[in-house]
Amino acid sequence: MTVLPKSVEKVIEEFAKLPGVGPKSAARMVYHFLRSPYKEASKLADMLKLMDEQVKFCKECFNLADSEVCAICDSPVRDKQKVCVVEESLDVVAFEKSGVYNGTYFVLGGVISPAEGVGAEELRFKELKVRVKSIEGNVEIIVATNPSLEGEATSNYIQDMFKREIKEGRVIITRLAMGLPTGADLEYADQLTLKRALEGRVKV
Ligand SMILES: [Zn+2]
Questions:
Q1: CA separation for the pair 53, 71 (Å, rounded)
Q2: 182 CA → ligand 1 middle, Å
Q3: 6 C-alpha vs ligand 1 centroid, how far in Å?
Q4: What does pTM read for this prediction?
Q5: Residue 138 and residue 70 share a domain
Q6: Quick one: 48 and 74 in the same domain?
């Protein structure tokens, strides 16, 4: 028998699906909204809806953006010959916070993970190829996937993908130095670690 109204239970269920949130904290959050006097829940719902409607993916790097092309791709001071390939938009935020990178990005949308059923087709490899092709001159692709087995497999895949361009000398691929502990999440790396990892990147 359930004690809670169905509508409340449903929201708890939804909140519990969020990363890092278990059923207990989900319930706590929902109670917080139920207690709040100023229609906080409706406000949040409106904001989420607005975000859904307004946020776009940059058509060049697939980072989250307000417009067709994000501010980084659009910037004339960014080094367009450098493309830093990351898993998620949050990784871009981590790099930008560190302030040590002046190139552009490409958000793959994840990593190859057979265990989780993510194959190469699910990620933006084709788009990466198109992006690199569209850049005039030589390109450095900095593979900044997380230092995990999946990140490694993804790095190898990218290397394979650009085999010809690498031979021709048009593309070089570098990988972040392993100042990052294996299994770590890039978005949680502190600025100094990220800076060292970027500066010590090695050609692969
Ligand atoms: Zn962009």
A1: 19
A2: 28
A3: 42
A4: 0.77
A5: yes
A6: no
